[in-house]
Amino acid sequence: MSTPRSDILLDRMMTLHPKVIDLTLDRVWRLLERLDHPERHLPPVVHIAGTNGKGSTQAMIRAGLEATGATCHAYTSPHLVRFHERIRLAGELIDEHHLSRVLDECLEANGPDPITYFEITTVAGLKAFADTPADWTLLEVGLGGRLDATNVIDTPALTIITPVSLDHQQFLGDTLPQIAGEKAGIIKRGVPCVVGPQEEAALDVIEAQAERLGAPLLAYGQHWRVWEERGRLIYQDETGLRDLPLPNLRGPHQIINAGMAIAALRQMEQPDDALEAAVTRTDWPARMQRLSGHAYESLLPDGELWLDGGHNPAAGETLAKTLAELSDRPTVLICGMLNTKDIGGYLRPLRSAADTLYAVAIPDATATLPAEETAEQARAAGFDAKVTENVQDALQHIAQTVPRARVLICGSLYLAGAVLRDG
User: Fold this and answer.
1) CB neighbours (10 Å) of residue 79?
2) What is the arithmetic mean of pLDDT over 357-384?
3) 253: buried, middle or exposed (CB in 10 Å: 19+, 13-18, 0-12)?
4) Over the Cα atoms of the chain, what is R_g?
5) Where is the Mur ligase central domain (predicted)?
6) Residue 118 half-sphere exposure, CB side, CA atoms within 13 Å?
7) Beta bridge partner(s), residue 403
8) CB-based burial label for 214 (10 Å; 0-12, 13-18, 19+)
9) Kind and range of the H or E element at 178?
10) Rounded to an integer, what distance in angstroms lies between the CA atom of residue 215 and that of residue 192?
11) Domains in the chain, start-ordered, CATH in brackets?
């Protein structure tokens, strides 16, 4: 089977800059100018930044809009299995021919000039969006916000900042206010901004930036609230209450993500049918996903198999709460993480949900933390931690020792992608 042309072009793009991440917008603006500014020819844009919940919130907004018959472009990262997942054109993943064409155009326009992989592929996504009619464009920030390659839209229809917490400190700053400042960089003059629950130090920064730019804030706890009550989702804003089903995405954190999506859809003047669809029709893999029908399930005949790609301390806390709400089975973790993450901060809250952890390296990831180091950190967090060659070996051992276990494969979207490719 021949290698898809898009894979060849994407491999070339990996060689155009010595760094994977080099935050600046100069190279992006240069390439956009050479392509006649596709970012100026998009359907109305909803731009989403934050530490956790960006992807789920975007997916809920898309489900709500599509239920009304609207068509949506959507940009997200990273992908799990194939790059095509990052670019959704009018509701459908970009096809191989279209992807190869826009990658070719971007490579030709860029020439030999340095540009990072994320920057040039983001421009390719914007070019594909500009070429294809749709009603809305949903843009998810890759890293930070202020200097992210997606932050090139002069006047989006709406911006959203999901909960901000510590992550990517080597690029965004060591403190919560510094990180919040980077996220708040997507706020634009006069453009409404939906803000999810924030620690006070982060909210102060976001509010100050919004005030400087005259951007109306729709902040959790001030302008809208959301909670679970008697098995229903209750959303409240200045127009009153909305009584809706619980999100079909699992976990108590999805209540908050649903609230942000609903607040956005309300601001976009969408009907109540869109609000219900946002919480009941969303599909977003590797977010506390039950792996039914996966090839690995046969290795665990009496157990349950789950997958989650969260990877920072806040994700560890929400995942622990989610596991606590599930039916009574012993929980075992299979964990692999990147060496850029706060593994101790991620694992410590999970110790309340599981005693045993199997550490693995992430296949084909150069930045993977070695399994031995993951196990060492897990032991420091209180786990009975074992090193194993791969996920399959861990599952076989768990099936023999804890046959009714709920097994959660976790720690990285890159590990989640490897598992999904094997399924």
Assistant:
1) 14
2) 96
3) buried
4) 21
5) 48-264
6) 21
7) none
8) exposed
9) helix 176-183
10) 5
11) 5-280 (3.40.1190.10), 289-422 (3.90.190.20)
Entry pTM:
0.91
CB 111: neighbour CB atoms within 10 A? 10
Average pLDDT over every residue of 181-204? 97
DSSP state of 250: -
Q: pLDDT digit string (tens) for 71-105?
A: 999 999 999 999 999 999 999 999 999 999 999 99
pLDDT tens per residue across span 273-286: 999 999 999 988 98
Distance, in Å, from the CA atom of 319 to the CA atom of 120, rounded to the nearest integer, reads 33
CB atoms within 10 A of CB 283: 11
Average pLDDT, the chain: 95
Q: Are 200 and 222 in contact (CB under 8 A)?
A: no
pLDDT of residue 22: 80
| Residue ranges with strand state E in 152-202 | 158-161, 193-195
The average pLDDT across 47-71 equals 96
For the chain, the farthest-separated pair of C-alpha atoms sits apart, in whole angstroms, at: 61
How many CB atoms within 10 Å of residue 130? 19
pLDDT of residue 1: 65
Q: Which two tokens stand for residue 81?
A: 């299995």
Q: In what order do the strands lie in the sheet with 240-245?
A: 224-229, 232-237, 240-245
The confidence band for 353, taking pLDDT boundaries of 50, 70 and 90, is very high
Beta strands in 33-132 (DSSP E): 45-49, 72-75, 87-89, 92-93
User: Dihedral through CA 415, CA 404, CA 315, CA 289, nearest 10?
Assistant: 60
